[in-house]
């Protein structure tokens, strides 16, 4: 690319560990032009983030850049002095990280963090920097930028913090912006707003962007070209539309095939990639993907393929497609059978649940504010059913999960589990309930004791609840549990940090299964996992449902995953369920404007989107009438009154004055 802002040539980054050198980035090359967005995708451990940190020279020992060039407008970043590097980062290049909460200083106000680079590089005095910072926040879509400038990071939602991070990156009007998973774990509506914001930087300011993500839908939405990485090297590069529709490397093909889509047939299982990435200390001699490749030939096991042209403007590292041939079309999974109607009694019934959280007083004479987290939720779960709960952050999903598992006590309402009223249980009665009603949390690493071996973590609840009488008996059960979730029983002696994210989530599921529950409440169990690991975990949960008759209450913000996994779906907004229906009906004919907007915001290549503006109202002061009316595209005067619950079809209930009135994009 002759007009490239950034040109990376044969970049090599090595981690020198006690076990030996690990080539985390191995001969990576690509370029990015002015006003272009390049996407980099791959599983965890593929080298995406290390590549970005290498470009910015942010890596500390034991990592070391041992080869290649990073040419920015002709200058090699890798040969810059520390002073030159500091000036370059401030004026020419910036990076936005995945975790905006840890990327912001919790004790500094937002304005100081946005403007400190401008002031440090002498481009503006304090007064001009203040005006510039407030204008940046306004440009990034931050509501009430003057007030936001005086706030602290913890006072913002995840989406607003990510906008602040982008504002910090754009403060010096950089030519190059590196964004490392900037939308991971964000709600679909906030994700859509951030993606539109990044696209606007391309169009308005000509910013060159390198966007790193494991979400192919995100990449396909705004990236012109895509680089696919596997085991530290580039395995395919080309125009995004071509790579996603006609991938020429088997790994790119498998990634594209594993992504749940809203328009795909609903199948009994999610497609995934067999096997695991290679050990970085013992890479295969030939193609690094060969052990997992369904089309491998003899040559793949002995010779490493070069990254070569397979079509105009396209490169692939594959012996099978080296002559320009295409891989077979994607597999179309068999349709799953619709869930059979059941006449049995519900396993879980919740009626009119309410949970409010009083906040500390701001002053001695001030009034105490209250967070209205859950405001009259009713639902049920049948034996063996998979109920999905979706909605934006702050809508009450996680609080609802903690209510039905009795980690929180409801302020009002009733909960019946397996015929027993559990809303007011305590002490020994509540302890006896725990084995039948288990929870799997979003972050398995945070829910596993880092100082305990996995075997002890799994054995502890067995011994506490009398499922095993002796340590030896518990050890046998632990081995069986690990085998049940697809892990080697000999790994029981390992610690949590020795496992990948997907493996840790399997361990969390094994811990829940050990007590033989009837219902598992899973709170965002796959939101931070790669698409392939996500498919493996969800398929495991489906298998266990078939073998053990488990029911699931499945909380997620990825609507395509919910569609693929759940029998029935409830949509929450501001502490209430606004729509509930069988999954097939809700995704085919959504009736509430909020549901329509959520579905339309899902990033999928080739789909038009409705980007829902703003954020939900504050839970400190609930609005009168319909809670969604301030953001609703079809709000009417009648919406100032509370909407009545309406059943528009069997099992399809909507909380709206005019269900079905908003269809989204024409």
Could you name the CATH class of the domain at 348-360 and 368-451 and 515-606?
A: Alpha Beta
The oligomeric state of the chains shown is single chain
What is the rounded distance between the termini?
38 Å
Q: Say how many strands there are.
A: 24
**Gyration radius from CA atoms, angstroms:** 26 Å
- CATH homologous superfamily of the domain at 348-360 and 368-451 and 515-606? P-loop containing nucleotide triphosphate hydrolases
Examine the secondary-structure arrangement and name the CATH architecture of the domain at 348-360 and 368-451 and 515-606: 3-Layer(aba) Sandwich
Task: Indicate the overall shape.
Answer: globular
Quickly give the structural class. alpha/beta
Q: Mean pLDDT score, rounded? A: 88
How would a crystallographer describe the biggest sheet? 8 strands, mixed
Structure in words:
With 666 residues, the chain is α/β, with parallel strands linked by helices. The chain has a domain at 348-360 and 368-451 and 515-606: Rossmann fold. It has an eight-stranded mixed sheet with strand order 6-7-8-3-9-10-12-11, with helices on both faces. α15 packs across α16 and α17 runs parallel beside α18 (531-548). The radius of gyration is 26 Å and the shape is globular. The model has no long low-confidence stretch (mean pLDDT 88). It is a peripheral membrane protein. This is ABC transporter ATP-binding protein. Its main location: membrane. Keywords: ATP-binding, Cell membrane, Membrane, Nucleotide-binding, Transport.
């Amino acid at each position: 690319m002759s007009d490239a802002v950034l040109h990376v040539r044969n970049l090599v980054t090595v981690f020198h560990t006690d076990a030996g050198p690990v080539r985390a980035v191995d001969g990576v090359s690509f370029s990015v032009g002015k006003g272009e967005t390049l996407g980099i995708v791959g599983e965890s451990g593929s080298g995406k983030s290390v590549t970005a940190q290498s470009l910015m020279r942010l890596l500390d020992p034991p990592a070391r850049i041992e080869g290649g060039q990073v040419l920015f407008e002709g200058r090699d970043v890798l040969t810059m002095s520390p002073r030159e590097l500091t000036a370059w980062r401030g004026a020419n290049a910036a990076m936005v990280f995945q975790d905006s909460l840890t990327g912001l200083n919790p004790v500094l106000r937002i304005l100081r963090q946005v403007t400190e680079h401008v002031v440090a590089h002498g481009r503006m005095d304090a007064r001009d920097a203040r005006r510039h910072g407030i204008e940046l926040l306004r440009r990034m879509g931050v509501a009430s930028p003057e007030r936001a400038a005086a706030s602290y990071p913890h006072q913002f939602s995840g989406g607003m913090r990510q906008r602040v991070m982008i504002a910090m990156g754009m403060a010096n009007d950089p030519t190059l912006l590196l964004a490392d998973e900037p939308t991971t774990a964000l709600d679909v509506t906030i994700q859509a707003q951030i993606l539109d914001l990044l696209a606007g930087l391309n169009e308005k300011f000509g910013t060159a962007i390198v966007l790193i993500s494991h979400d192919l839908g995100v990449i396909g939405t705004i990236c012109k070209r895509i680089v696919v990485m596997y085991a530290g090297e580039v395995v395919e590069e080309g125009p995004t539309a071509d790579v996603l529709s006609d991938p020429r490397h088997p790994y790119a093909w498998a990634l594209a095939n594993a992504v749940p889509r809203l328009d795909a047939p609903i199948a009994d299982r999610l497609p995934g990639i067999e096997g695991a990435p290679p050990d970085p200390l013992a890479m295969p001699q030939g193609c690094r993907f060969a052990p997992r490749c369904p089309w491998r030939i003899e040559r793949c096991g002995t010779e490493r393929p070069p990254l070569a042209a397979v079509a105009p403007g396209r490169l692939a590292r594959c012996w099978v497609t080296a002559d320009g041939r295409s891989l077979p079309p994607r597999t179309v999974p068999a349709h799953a059978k619709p869930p059979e109607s059941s006449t049995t009694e519900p396993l879980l019934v919740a009626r009119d649940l309410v949970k409010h959280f009083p906040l500390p007083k701001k002053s001695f004479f001030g009034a105490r504010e209250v967070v209205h987290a859950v405001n009259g939720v009713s639902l049920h779960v049948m034996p063996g059913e998979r109920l999905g709960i979706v909605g934006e952050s702050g809508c009450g999903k996680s609080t609802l999960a903690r209510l039905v598992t009795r980690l929180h006590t409801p302020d009002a309402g009733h909960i019946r589990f397996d015929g027993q009223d559990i809303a007011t249980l305590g002490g020994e009665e509540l302890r006896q309930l725990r084995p039948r009603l288990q929870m799997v949390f979003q972050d398995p690493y945070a829910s596993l004791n880092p100082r305990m071996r996995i075997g002890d973590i799994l054995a502890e609840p067995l011994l506490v609840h009398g499922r095993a009488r002796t340590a030896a008996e518990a050890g046998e059960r632990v081995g069986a549990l690990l085998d049940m979730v697809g892990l080697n029983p000999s790994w029981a002696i390992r610690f949590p940090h020795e496992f990948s994210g997907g493996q840790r989530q399997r361990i969390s599921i094994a811990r829940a299964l050990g007590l033989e529950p009837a219902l598992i409440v899973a709170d965002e169990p796959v939101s931070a996992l790669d698409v392939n690991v996500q498919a493996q975990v969800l398929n495991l949960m489906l298998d266990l449902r078939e073998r053990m008759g488990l029911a699931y209450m499945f909380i997620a913000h990825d609507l395509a995953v919910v569609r693929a996994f759940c029998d029935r779906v409830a949509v929450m907004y501001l502490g209430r369920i606004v729509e509930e229906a069988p999954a097939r009906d809700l995704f085919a004919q959504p009736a509430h404007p909020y549901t329509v907007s959520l579905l339309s915001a899902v990033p999928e290549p080739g789909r038009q989107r409705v980007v829902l503006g703003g954020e939900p109202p504050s839970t400190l002061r609930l609005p009168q009438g319909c809670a969604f009316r301030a953001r609703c595209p079809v709000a009417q005067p009648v919406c100032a009154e509370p909407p009545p619950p309406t059943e528009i079809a069997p099992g399809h209930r909507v909380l709206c004055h005019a269900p079905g009135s908003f269809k989204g994009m024409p």
